[in-house]
Amino acid sequence: MQQVAIITGAGNGIGAAAAKLLAQHGVRVAVLDVHEEKAQLVAQAISQAGGQALSIRCDVGQRAQVEEAIQLVESHFGDITILVNNAGVGGPFHRVDEVSDEEWDWIMNTNLKSVFLFCRNLLPKMKERNYGRIVNIASIQGLLGSAHSSTYVASKHGMIGYTKTIAAEWGEHGITCNAICPGYVDTAMGVRPEDISDYMNRVIAKSPVKRVAQPVEIAQMIDHLVGPHSGYINGTSITMDGGISSHIGITDQLS
Ligand SMILES: NC(=O)c1ccc[n+]([C@@H]2O[C@H](COP(=O)([O-])OP(=O)(O)OC[C@H]3O[C@@H](n4cnc5c(N)ncnc54)[C@H](O)[C@@H]3O)[C@@H](O)[C@H]2O)c1
Question: How many Å lie between the centroid of ligand 1 and the Cα of residue 172?
Fold first, then answer.
């Protein structure tokens, strides 16, 4: 079966690395991002390397844009077999009482409503073909609380609950759904310029492996979860944080 993937937020970071890796392995990849030029650059790089890619501007929190993007991918590449819900925003560090309605809606729509919009549309079609692979990029902040990131934390906990429920509902139809929980990744989101000195040094000092992850390391796990040897992995959350959440030091205040 020809594999066709939608990867959201694939104009940068983890999504871009996943798009390139899946394309190298023969998957036709739709590179979706709210920033059109970034998506175009990734798709061009894939094409130049001999892969097949289509770039689409899509705000994943907007139902009409999600439905239009899915239609475009289906008409261009055929049936969608892989969905990687990766687009995400962290938002500013705010205490709960400082979070505005607009900030809450922006983070929840981008990180969580998007998963619902894509899954609602694609699951029945995957069921018809008795095959589908869904990977949701959550975070260790989907497993732990984190001061001053309440909305992000809520969205990522929601993503993990949603992952488990899709696994339970749709597994009998040949569809698997799993989450990956990265710790700190060397991307625009994970290692912001203003963080590089003090904050990131403290993160790295607490990490058992004394470094942050590279985007390609997360992409390799995505590649495994959508590949032929992962049919029995369903409804789980795979922590990829170098061990940072496994020891008591993480409970010290980082932010
Ligand atoms: N970088 C980290 O340390 C880290 C850690 C844990 C989890 N994550 C998660 O990994 C995922 C990818 O993050 P990243 O580190 O590669 O970030 P990134 O900022 O490098 O890339 C995210 C991409 O998503 C796009 N995007 C943002 N809002 C969008 C929207 N509404 N519609 C479509 N695209 C949108 C951005 O334009 C960007 O290209 C996110 O869900 C993030 O929460 C990242």
Answer: 31
